[in-house]
Amino acid sequence: MEHIAALLLIVGCSQDMKQCEELPSPVTVYETAGECDAELPAALRQLDGRKPRVMGTCVYVDPAMEEEDAELVWDVTPNGALRATVEAISMNVASVTGNTLHE
After folding, report:
1. pLDDT value at 91 more than 80
2. Which of 11, 8, 48 minimizes the C-alpha distance to 27?
3. How many other C-beta atoms can be found within 10 angstroms of the C-beta atom of residue 56?
4. pLDDT for 92
5. Residue 92 carries which DSSP code?
6. Nearest 5°: phi and psi at 50?
7. What does the alpha-carbon distance between residue 33 and residue 17 come to, in Å, rounded to a whole number?
8. What distances in angstroms separate CA 30 from CA 18, 27, 54, one per listed residue?
9. How close are the terminal C-alpha atoms of the chain, in Å?
């Protein structure tokens, strides 16, 4: 069974950094953080020019989260830094569909 240690996130932004979106990378999951770190420069070069500003990071995945549902959460700060984490999705959130409450 493959274990994920890191995710490669590449984001492209407008010149003013007000509009950003994820860009597809050739490989997105890595078994070791070192593999992701090694591939990051090549992935950035490959996507350079797709947007005025392209940035990326390796997001480390806690092995304890292997059995949990999780999501990648990212943000670009006003000074242009890319921050990203993998966060567990809470399954205790109640949602309303029509007149029925689901938990």
Report:
1. no
2. 8
3. 21
4. 54
5. T
6. -70, -30
7. 27
8. 30, 8, 21
9. 31
